Amino acid sequence: MTVRETLAEGVRLLKLPVGDSSVDTPALDAALLLAEALKIRREEMLSRDTETVGEPEREKFFSLVERRRSGECIAYILGHKEFRGLDFIVNPHVLVPRPDTETLVEAALEYIDTFPTDDNLSLLDLCTGSGAVGISLKKERPFLSVTVSDISPDALDVAAENANVHVGIGAVKIIQSDLYESITERLNIIVSNPPYIPTGDLSALPPEVKREPQLALDGGVDGLELIRKIVSQAPEKLLPAGRLFLEAAPEQMPEIRKILKEHGFGGIRTRKDLAGSERVIYGCYRS
């Protein structure tokens, strides 16, 4: 089989439904998986489409296709995911970084850029997972003093690998912590993409999302259990006029706004994602 024929067969297989689920982007996924099996960049396949695919590479490709058909997400199969132009290592111990979360980075950058670069601003990425948010902010604004934290030691292992690759060993502090439990310093900025899916909604998630860590998805009965704790405890960890930035679901924004006001936050604003939905909410703590 040629590269073209192998790719076509992969697309055909990925279009076949499995139970009540299906692959949304069969052509893209097949191309990514074949590039992985051939150890080439996806862009190279067009110029090599008449070449014969060796038996080992063909077997590897079709085994990857079956993993995708079983509901495993493409990022876990490949072991990496692009975020803010960086290639982040991912595995089943961390959530897969998503484009919506870039909105959280952009909102924080807008605030950070109101300060001189010699201000040595301190920032905590709470519930960091793969480290994508905190590491991206450190990469884009190297003067930041960045700490990333998570309750999961396995997630922090992934974050440490990503930090070493993108900003260098020791460039960010990595702390295992149940929310703020092990955070001893006060900070200018706290950013967080915490679990915010209501427990009752977890069973309706797509098969690939169900394979992501439940600890990073389950936000309690109404999805706001962790967010309430993060907001209520934030004043003890923020410096005067410190900012808290949270990612959450658009329908949760009115209630989060109330929670922020109840705990002394003002200047509350939201930021929309690429789809035009409110994805991030933030405010200033009035000490």
What can you tell me about this protein's structure?
The protein has 287 residues and is of the alpha/beta class. The protein has two domains: 3-71, Helicase, Ruva Protein, domain 3, CATH 1.10.8; 92-285, Rossmann fold. Helix content is 36%, strand content 19%. It has helices at residues 3-15, 26-38, 55-69, 74-78, 102-112, 132-140, 153-166, 207-210, 225-233, 253-262; strands at residues 80-83, 86-89, 122-126, 145-150, 173-176, 187-192, 238-247, 265-272, 278-285. A seven-stranded mixed β-sheet has the order 5-4-3-6-7-9-8, with helices on both faces. Helix 1 packs across helix 2 (26-38), helix 2 packs antiparallel against helix 3 and helix 6 packs parallel to helix 7. The model has no long low-confidence stretch (mean pLDDT 95).
Low-confidence stretches: none
How widely separated are the two ends? 68 Å
> Could you report the average pLDDT, rounded to the nearest whole number?
95
User: How much helix is in the residues?
Assistant: 25-40%
CATH architecture of the largest domain: 3-Layer(aba) Sandwich
Query: What is the CA-based Rg, rounded?
Result: 21 Å
* Tally of helical runs: 10
Output the structural class: alpha/beta
Strand order of the largest sheet: 5-4-3-6-7-9-8
Give a count of the beta strands, DSSP E runs of length 2 or more: 9
Task: Let me know the largest β-sheet.
Answer: 7 strands, mixed
The CATH homology group name of the largest domain: Vaccinia Virus protein VP39
CATH topology of the largest domain: Rossmann fold
General form: elongated
Main CATH class of the largest domain: Alpha Beta
User: SSE order, as H and E?
Assistant: HHHHEEHEHEHEEHHEHEE
Strand content: 15-25%
Overall number of domains: 2
